[in-house]
From TrEMBL:
InterPro entries noted in UniProt: AhpD-like, CMD-like
Carboxymuconolactone decarboxylase-like domain: residues covered: 19-100
Superkingdom field: Bacteria
Single GO molecular function: peroxiredoxin activity
Record organism: Georgenia ruanii
Record protein name field: Carboxymuconolactone decarboxylase family protein
Length: 106
């Protein structure tokens, strides 16, 4: 597993392997259920993670969006769009998490 995964996530997957496999299958089915390309879907999921103020999900979706071909500017715009819906503190926090992920990958 990638080293950036939290220990608790890895431990949960190791303890409940069947449930983790089923969750992975559901995630694949959901990702394939509509017409959005992977990059767009990752940017949407990033917006949802920002709205939930979910640090790990923001970081994960930044990584996955970059891997799917999103630019840093596109990711920043998604985060900035959260400003008028989720608020300034949530937006700044998500931007900080994004900056940390980008710095890790540099």
């Amino acid at each position: 597993m990638p080293e950036h995964l939290p220990d608790v996530y890895v431990s949960f997957r190791e303890r409940f392997t069947d449930i983790a496999r089923q969750q992975d299958a559901l995630a694949r089915a959901v990702d394939e259920a509509g017409p959005l390309d992977e990059k767009t879907a990752r940017l949407v999921k990033l917006g949802i993670a920002l709205g939930a103020q979910a640090d790990g999900a923001v970081r994960s979706n930044v990584r996955k969006a970059l891997a799917a071909g999103a630019t840093e500017a596109e990711i920043e715009q998604v985060i900035l769009l959260g400003l008028t819906t989720r608020g300034f503190p949530a937006t700044v926090a998500a931007w900080k998490w994004m900056q940390e992920v980008v710095a890790e990958q540099a």
